[in-house]
Amino acid sequence: MATDAYVLDPAKRSRLLTALYIAQEQEGYLTPEALKRVAERLDVPEAEVYSTASFYTLFRTEPVGQYVIQVCTGLSCYLVGGAERLVDYLEQKLGVKPGETTPDGLFTLQTVQCLASCGTAPAMRVNDELYENLTAEKVDVLIDQLKVRAERWAALNRS
Amino acid sequence: MGSFEPILTRNVGVPNSEHIAVYLKRGGYTALRKALKMPPDELTAIVKDSGLRGRGGAGFPAGLKWGFMPKEPVTKYVCVNTDEGEPGTFKDRLLVEHDPHSIVEGVIIASYAVGAHRAFVYIRGEFFLGVKRWIKAIEEAYAHGFLGKDILDSGFDLDLSVHRGAGAYICGEETALINSLEGKRGEPRMKPPYPAQIGLWNEPTLVHNVETLANVPHIVNNGADWYRSIGTERSTGPKLFCVSGHVRRPGNYEVPLGTPLRTIIEEHAGGMRGDRPLKAVIPGGASTPMLTPEHLDIPMDFESLVEVGSMLGTGAVVVIEEGTCMVEVARRLMDFFAHESCGQCTPCRMGTRRLKEVLTRIVKGKGKPDDLDLLETISAGIFGHTLCPMGDAAVNPVLSSLKHFRDEYEHHIQYKRCKEA
Fold this sequence. Notes:
Largest sheet of chain B: 4 strands, parallel
Strand content of chain B: 5-15%
CATH class of the largest domain in chain B: Alpha Beta
Strand order of the largest sheet of chain B: 3-2-1-4
Number of strands of chain B: 8
Mean pLDDT of chain B: 97
Shape of chain A: globular
Helix content of chain B: 40-55%
Number of strands of chain A: 4
CATH superfamily of the largest domain in chain B: NADH-ubiquinone oxidoreductase 51kDa subunit
Oligomer: heterodimer
Order of helices and strands of chain B: HHHHEHHEHEHEHEEHEHEHHHH
Shape of chain B: globular
Low-confidence stretches of chain B: none
Distance between the termini of chain B: 38 Å
Mean pLDDT of chain A: 91
Number of domains of chain B: 3
CATH topology of the largest domain in chain B: Rossmann fold
């Protein structure tokens, strides 16, 4: 039934997004090698794999920090006066601009639009976790917790 | 309105409402037992009679959609659209996180009615808790014999699995969702053919929004007449309205369709958050044209909103107070649409970027005298010239804000600053 001549197995192709998620987990981003491996495993041309990966914002082809902070700057978060303040606060606190990663590799700051938390604005995501009704105090506590968690993780890997 | 008992959100707030034990105790899966004893055609007829219309934004009659599926026993699919991404909308997330079994039950009934034995949940990649809740609910449903082979000794088989999107608003459009499920770029397909004819892997496919499916068990349990008694004549049933912005109590409120906008904002959401009066309302999510205080008494149903030049959309009510720069509101929404344009149709891909550029320079006090004409020209170039409804959606915030707040745009251009600042 496949309309694309090169796709031998549509069921295999349909695993592409899942495969990209798994590949991304290994290094935190999709390395050229990972994209190649996915292409080989699923019999999909490399260019197609890259094209698909680049379409979706949750797939990254550049390295990111251990914690990716995505602050919602959507309309509702903006209206309640939280979005910009939150971005400014994190910029100052982490010393990076949106799109950048802290020198210690811990945090990447990003802005996104609409996390479906408009009723609990302002909101942000850290990796896969959602945080809502944010204030500067809550952000302080969270960043400290994440630093401790990262430290423990590093210690665990050293031992 | 105080007498309305929640239907879709009746389990929200009940401890452990996401667990099957709680759902069963509260009458869950009785509709499924009933449905499996009925001829599939009868179910389609009941849903048709109920007047249930899609809750994902388009408002297409659900029963008609079921009826479009071929009657022959060919391979068919059902997809649950959990790709909630319309700015202002947070209702499907609520249902999935707090009452996933009501949707699972709805999917099984819909699949049985259209003769599909394979169903897929497509969920927004950002909804991590939602993914977990979906997976858990599906596992529980299998364990209780509501999914799998020979469901409740009916002879009906159905498999259901969860697939995570990866951050693309456009995948909420049903044909883009199908492409994404196939592991491709989430670009919408040309319609016709509609998914009921050629959908997932080119087989007939029924795609429904989460909230739409959550209505189905209640319709089966209580009948079409009961359902039609809620709401208006042509907009039947309950609806979740997501209220956000400058209100005292933002949140999800379930009311019958046709409830006045004023009741939703003032009674449910507690009115304006401060002393500033209402300036504008986006009634159904970012894609729907803005309204002004004169529209406050409008009944929130599909027809009434079309009459005033807007749309019910997803029911996401964004409330905006006086003192807010409406050019900035339009710019922000355009930033979203420009980012989320899939790039397939040139008018949408290029047009949204140009609109964003023009809006940005007006906001920054660098607007030119003919920029308002330019906004209208670009919008006209996009509207009606794209494969999917996103092109039309993207120009709505611009054209509606220009219509209601043209003086603000002109002030920005003439005095190089905001009138509201």
